Amino acid sequence: MAMREIRVLPDPVLRTPCEPITTIDARVRGLVEDLLETVDHEGRAGLAANQIGVSLRAFSWNIDDEIGYVLNPRITELSEDEYQDGDEGCLSVPGLWFPTKRAWYAKVEGTDLDGKPVVVEGTELMARCLQHEVDHLDGYLYIDRLERSVRKKAMRTLREQL
To answer: Where is the active site (predicted)?
Structure first.
């Protein structure tokens, strides 16, 4: 296992949709180990594979002292009437936090390293994490979901940092 370096904007891997995992081999097992090791630190809620430079559909999470992973995740359910609008940040956009509207509840389905079905669901922080990480795997960042005026401020701040 290895703690991997986090890729940050403007790294193009963060804007590239990740490929499905078709074969579970030593490379994928190593990726999962690295995702679990790298997310297991204070202040880290989730980590997508492309954030460590691997364009495969996998992510790990670290919420309420529970650490896990899912391969080929897809969102299968979101609350339609209940939302949360708290501040959100990202390891790949360090130091910036902006109010981001997300569904209050989310459900993700995928597989584990044995190819068995996995269902991960939750509310509040877990729901935010699931939506955030699947967005990463689709080539999106949370700043893409910001309301126009907030996104304009975020982009200005990013340009100043680069």
So the answer is: 133
